[in-house]
């Protein structure tokens, strides 16, 4: 009888734990519950864009805008540490716009440099060919 009972016991449904009824409480009465009020999470602190400003200051410092962005990023981080989120937001947005301006100027200057290099190279090749037409190369003498 022992081994035959083992499989039927393992197939029995698992019941959830129960709470004993208090005196005077009926079976159909709702159970006691605890309500925990949840406060909304605090808003995330404003971004200071320090890493972006550091990269802009080191690699794309057009008209010193990268250094200005770095200064405003550090000011934003200081304000954030002091708990002044409105000041940190203001300094952070200024740093962001300075970074964007420096990046756009840098992209424009790179494109301009490439365009000038390409047109200058083409002009030099044309001048070289015109010089060859007037004085043909005869070879070593």
UniProtKB/TrEMBL annotation:
<keyword id="KW-1133">Transmembrane helix</keyword>
<keyword id="KW-0812">Transmembrane</keyword>
<keyword id="KW-0472">Membrane</keyword>
<feature type="transmembrane region" description="Helical">
    <location>
        <begin position="104"/>
        <end position="128"/>
    </location>
</feature>
<dbReference type="GO" id="GO:0005886">
    <property type="term" value="C:plasma membrane"/>
</dbReference>
<dbReference type="Pfam" id="PF04505">
    <property type="entry name" value="CD225"/>
</dbReference>
<protein>
    <submittedName>
        <fullName>IFM2 protein</fullName>
    </submittedName>
</protein>
<dbReference type="InterPro" id="IPR051517">
    <property type="entry name" value="IFITM_antiviral_protein"/>
</dbReference>
<feature type="transmembrane region" description="Helical">
    <location>
        <begin position="50"/>
        <end position="72"/>
    </location>
</feature>
<dbReference type="InterPro" id="IPR007593">
    <property type="entry name" value="CD225/Dispanin_fam"/>
</dbReference>
<comment type="similarity">
    <text>Belongs to the CD225/Dispanin family.</text>
</comment>
């Amino acid at each position: 009888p022992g081994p035959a009972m083992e499989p039927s016991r393992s197939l029995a449904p698992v019941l959830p734990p129960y709470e004993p009824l208090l005196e005077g409480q009926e079976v159909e009465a709702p159970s006691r519950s605890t309500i925990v009020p949840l406060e909304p999470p605090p808003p995330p602190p404003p971004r200071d864009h320090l890493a972006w400003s550091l990269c802009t200051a080191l690699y794309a410092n057009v008209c010193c805008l990268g250094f200005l962005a770095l200064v405003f990023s550090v000011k934003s981080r200081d304000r954030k540490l002091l708990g002044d989120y409105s000041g940190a937001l203001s300094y952070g947005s200024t740093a962001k716009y300075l970074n964007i301006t420096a990046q756009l100027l840098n992209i424009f200057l790179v494109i301009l440099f490439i365009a000038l290099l390409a047109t200058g190279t083409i002009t030099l090749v044309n001048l070289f060919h015109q010089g060859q037409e007037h004085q043909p190369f005869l070879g070593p003498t």
